[in-house]
Specification:
binds iron/sulfur cluster, 2-methylcitrate dehydratase PrpD
C-alpha cells in the first residue's frame, strides 16, 4: 500500500470502500507491522495524554509551572473564566476550543508532556479540535481515535510532499499543517466523506498560506501560543464550511504543493531564525534582551 498523495488516498478509499480512518489504520498496520487493536490501543493512549495536557494547562500556574520565557501565563484559565461570563462573541464552543489549545501550549512551554501533533510548537490545535468535536457531537474516545487516524494520514501526506517544520516552510507549515489535519479529522468525525476531509484541510491551508515563523527570542511562546488558539478556529470553521456543502476548488495536493513552494520562497529571516516578523519588533527585541541577559547573569 503506497499512499503518496491525497489523490492516492481518495482512490484507495473509493476502490476499497474505506473511510479515512480505516484507510489510515490499514496504512499504519502495514507500515509498522501491527494489528488493528494495537493501532487503536496506541491512539487511545495518545488521546488520553492529549486530554491530560488540556486539563493540566487549564489550571492556575502558581503550582509548580514555569514558562521558559515567562512571556505569558494562565491563558487557558483566563479563557475559561471569560467563557463563564457568557459574553464570548463566537459562543462557548469556539472560545472553549481556543482555551483547550492554549492550555496545551502552556504545558508545552513549561516543559510538560504533550503530544507533538505534528510538532511541539503546534501541539494545541489537534487535541483542542478533537475534544471539541467529541463534546459537540457527543462522541466517545473510539471516535476521537478515528479522528486522530484521519489527521495522521493527512499529516503524513503533507510531510511527504511539503514540510511540517517552521524552519523549512514558515508557520504555515507548522500551525497550518496542524490546523489542516484538525479540519480533516473533525469533518471525518462528523461523518463527512474522505474528499470532504481533504477539502476542509485545503481550505484551512489557503487561509494560513504565507504565514511566517517568527518566534520572539527564539522561544515558542509569542506568537505561537495565540496562533495555536486561532489555528483551531481556522480548522473548525473550515470544517463547518465543508459540512455546509462548500468545496475546495483547488485540490488538496495542489494546495500542499503551493504551500511548499511559498515556504521555499520565504527568506531565512522568516523561518524560525527570529530574524523578522513579530520577532523583530522593538518590544520583541527588548524582551529578548531581558531574557538572555538574565540567563547570562
Ligand atoms: S511561529 Fe514558528 S515556532 Fe511559533 S508556532 Fe509558528 S512555526 Fe512554530
Amino acid at each position: 500500500m503506497n499512499i503518496k498523495s491525497g489523490e492516492d488516498l481518495l482512490r484507495l478509499c473509493a476502490e476499497e470502500g474505506l473511510s479515512l480512518s480505516e484507510a489510515a489504520c490499514k496504512y499504519e498496520m502495514k507500515k509498522n507491522d501491527v494489528t488493528k487493536e494495537e493501532v487503536y490501543e496506541k491512539m487511545l493512549f495518545t488521546y488520553a495524554q492529549m486530554k491530560k495536557s488540556i486539563q493540566e494547562g487549564m489550571k492556575k500556574k502558581d503550582s509548580g509551572y514555569e514558562i521558559r520565557g515567562k512571556m505569558f501565563k494562565d491563558y487557558g484559565m483566563l479563557m475559561d473564566e471569560y467563557i463563564a461570563t457568557k459574553n464570548a462573541f463566537l459562543g462557548e464552543r469556539a472560545a472553549r476550543a481556543v482555551a483547550y489549545a492554549v492550555s496545551v501550549m502552556e504545558v508545552n512551554c513549561s516543559m510538560g508532556r504533550v503530544v507533538a501533533s505534528p510538532t511541539a510548537g503546534s501541539c494545541g490545535v489537534l487535541p483542542a479540535a478533537i475534544l471539541s468535536a467529541c463534546e459537540t457531537y457527543e462522541l466517545d474516545d473510539k471516535k476521537a481515535v478515528e479522528g486522530l487516524l484521519a489527521a495522521g494520514i493527512v499529516g503524513a501526506i503533507i510531510a511527504r510532499n511539503a514540510s511540517l517544520s517552521g524552519a523549512r516552510g514558515g508557520c504555515q507549515a507548522e500551525i497550518g499543517s496542524a490546523s489542516a489535519m484538525a479540519a480533516a479529522a473533525v469533518v471525518h468525525m462528523a461523518e463527512g466523506t474522505p474528499k470532504m476531509s481533504l477539502d476542509a484541510a485545503s481550505i484551512t491551508f489557503k487561509n494560513i498560506m504565507g504565514l511566517v515563523c517568527d518566534p520572539v527570542a527564539g522561544l515558542v511562546e509569542i506568537p505561537c501560543v495565540k496562533r495555536n488558539g486561532l489555528g483551531v478556529l481556522n480548522a473548525l470553521m473550515s470544517a463547518d464550511m465543508v459540512l455546509a456543502g462548500i468545496e475546495s476548488i483547488i485540490p488538496f495536493d495542489e494546495v500542499v504543493s503551493a504551500m511548499d513552494k511559498v515556504g521555499r520562497q520565504m527568506p531565512e529571516s522568516l523561518r524560525e531564525t527570529s530574524g523578522g516578523g513579530i520577532a523583530d519588533t522593538p518590544t520583541a527585541r527588548k524582551i529578548e534582551k531581558e531574557i538572555y541577559k538574565k540567563d547570562w547573569d
